[in-house]
Structure prediction request, 271 residues.
Amino acid sequence: MQIITYLAVNLLVGLVSLHSNAHEFWMEPSDFQPRVGDKVTIDLVIGDNFEGFSSPYTPDEIAAFGLIDAAGTTPITGRFGDMPAGQFIAAQAGLSLLYHQTTPSYVTYTKPEKFISFAVEKGFADVVAYYKKPQPKNFRLVEKYSRFVKSLIMVGPASGQDQLVGLEMELVALKNPYQQPVSKEFSVAVYESGVPLPRAQVTVFIRHTPRDIEKKIIMADSQGRVHLALLPGRQYLFDSVKLKPIKDAGSRKNAQWESLWASLTFAVPDE
Prediction:
């Protein structure tokens, strides 16, 4: 039975890895507003348009996984194959911050059209223009990618603030989204290595019900910030990608490009 479970999990991990570069990756807690003492499980979700499927806890693919609350930082651990991938007890009142970072993965493109499609979706016009030029018949492009994921959970009365965790690519809410009244001037900042990333493209998914999901694409300003009015009773997923060339000719697997994926989730309470 253990062998069957191990093989099944490895098959699922393989399927997730195969498609992960073309999809968003985010954290979805079982409860965005638990009470003190409640158990909260954490799904690591891969999908499109704020719909997807959970991926298991796979230690080899996790560089960091933890919780920051009023008591400090607590690592989140599990066993290989656990789904949901994590869990914790909401022990501290106030804003709790979950973070997760994957180890680097690699994807190989044998047709330029697939890489172009990805670059178009994520707003990299200069990359698109280059690869639309005639390419060799034996086209081969290797991309290195990593995921940097955060989620905000409100335990008890609304207090506390999001913060930089130190991820290479990171989204930070500049206001507490759980505070009332619901913010009509809400901002999220995009950072790369702790420095604001101006003009970054940010995709925002707004889920009211499983079948009522709105998508917005917003360009960050000169300070790396995007602005929008929040709506009560919605869940939010912010997603942004940085794509940059790898200049080291001897890079692992001869990767030519590196993408850094950041996401942030939270839920706005009903008024």
User: Anything to note?
Assistant: DSSP finds three helices and 17 strands in the chain. The helical segments are 2-19, 112-122, 125-131. The radius of gyration is 19 Å.
